[in-house]
């Protein structure tokens, strides 16, 4: 047997990355919602947040309905990722406990 046993497969790693991205998106959306009534606040999207170090974007107002829709969409994705991750961990737990017998 060469190399080490890989417990977490690529799907697990992809889910972990997706959860991190969803968490970062949630932070940007939450910031927009929190500042919806702040005069002069320019709403950001997740991609804009990443690109703002590269170039200045046109300012835009926070549209609360759009932010709430984005929040709901991102929350749904995050929940799906968590369910998939929980399922993968359950399989690993079953394998580990079956190995003790």
Please give a quick description of this structure.
This protein is mainly α and 101 residues long. The protein has helices at residues 10-34, 46-51, 64-99.
Descriptive report:
- The protein has 101 residues and is mainly α.
- The protein has one domain.
- The protein contains 3 helices and no strands.
- It has helices at 10-34, 46-51, 64-99.
- The two termini are 23 Å apart.
- The relative contact order is 0.14.
- The model is unreliable at 1-5 and 53-57 (pLDDT under 50).
Please tally the helical runs, counting DSSP H or I stretches of 4 or more residues. Answer: 3
The overall average pLDDT, rounded, is 76
The largest β sheet comes out as: none
Secondary-structure-derived class? mainly alpha
**How many strands in all?**
0
Molecular shape: elongated
Question: What Rg do the Cα atoms give?
Answer: 19 Å
The quaternary organization reads as: single chain
User: How much strand content do the residues show?
Assistant: under 5%
The first-to-last residue Cα distance is 23 Å
**Helicity range:** 55-70%
Uncertain ranges: 1-5, 53-57
Query: How many domains is the backbone divided into?
Result: 1
Q: What is the N-to-C succession of helices and strands?
A: HHH
């Amino acid at each position: 047997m060469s190399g080490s046993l890989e417990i977490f497969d690529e799907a697990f790693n992809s889910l972990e990355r997706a959860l991190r991205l969803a968490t970062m998106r949630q932070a940007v959306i939450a910031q927009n919602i929190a500042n919806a009534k702040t005069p002069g606040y320019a709403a950001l999207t997740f991609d804009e947040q990443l690109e703002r170090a590269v170039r200045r974007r046109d300012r835009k107002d926070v549209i609360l309905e759009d932010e709430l829709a984005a929040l709901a969409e991102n929350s749904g994705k995050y929940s799906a990722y968590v369910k998939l991750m929980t399922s993968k961990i359950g399989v690993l737990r079953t394998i580990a406990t079956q190995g003790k017998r």
